[in-house]
């Protein structure tokens, strides 16, 4: 009789077979490494750069070219990695802290509790998110932490719906009924049995949410609602658009846009890999 493989080793084995998932993981690790090593790789952009080399195309001296005040686009993109990862992680954590409890309680108890929880969720799903984000950013301020909080406050409904759907299926399992029969506290059943088994789809949606959060931050920054004191990829695009040189200086839009695409695709590919590794039905395809 062969020894039983641990769930973690089983997950790693199947995840490694998914090329998209591995690509996504390597992409995120590479960007995370750039964010951590940003002070070593490049100088933090500030003030005016080399005014004698304004709007220079990519060259050996300026790999990504320079902007209208002579600042290196390469430096801006490297430091923008920190902002994008921070926004993606912070907004995802906020969404989970709000959406998971609502989904768990709604799915486990059902009835009126479920109706109230899903009514609140549906209200948030029908709200015009972008205009409300713009209003809240204008009211609360354009600090990068405020932007991350705002995005998180409007991103939790999808997590709540996924959590509720999984909870509805799990609460009917025999081991849940057995836990109730032996007198296990409901709070322990919810967080130890239901949540742990519902965690895989929550994790998959978290990766997708982090990608969409990066896009939301880039959109708000492009509209001029980003943090002017910190460099983000959306801020680079907004500065190029505001100065009117984005049409002629193609490198101002190309490199931050490529960075956004790489990060968003990396999160989505990672989610695909995790989903296939955790879902036995997808492995058989």
UniProtKB/TrEMBL annotation:
Residues 81-271 form the ABC transmembrane type-1 domain. The keyword Cell membrane applies. Keywords: Cell membrane, Membrane, Transmembrane, Transmembrane helix, Transport. The chain crosses the membrane at residues 20-42, 86-109, 129-154, 202-225, 245-275. It is found in: Cell membrane. Belongs to the binding-protein-dependent transport system permease family. This is ABC transmembrane type-1 domain-containing protein.
